[in-house]
Amino acid sequence: MQSRPTLVTGATGFVGSAVARALAARGHRLRLLVRSGSDRRNVADLDAELAVGDLTDAESLRRAVAGCRFVAHVAADYRIWVPDPEAMRAANIAGTVALMQAARNAGVERIVYCSSVATLGLRSDGAPADETTPVDENSIVGAYKQSKYEAEQAVLRLARQEGLPAVIVNPAAPIGPRDVKPTPTGRMVVDAASGRMPAYIDTGLNVVHVDDVGEGHALALERGRIGERYILGGENLTLRALVGIIAEAAGRPPPAIRLPIDAIWPVAIGAEMWARLTGTEPLVTRDHLRMARKRMFFSPAKAIAELGYAPRPAATAVADALVWFRAQGMIRS
Question: Once rounded to an integer, what is the mean pLDDT over residues 119-134?
Answer without folding.
Answer: 92
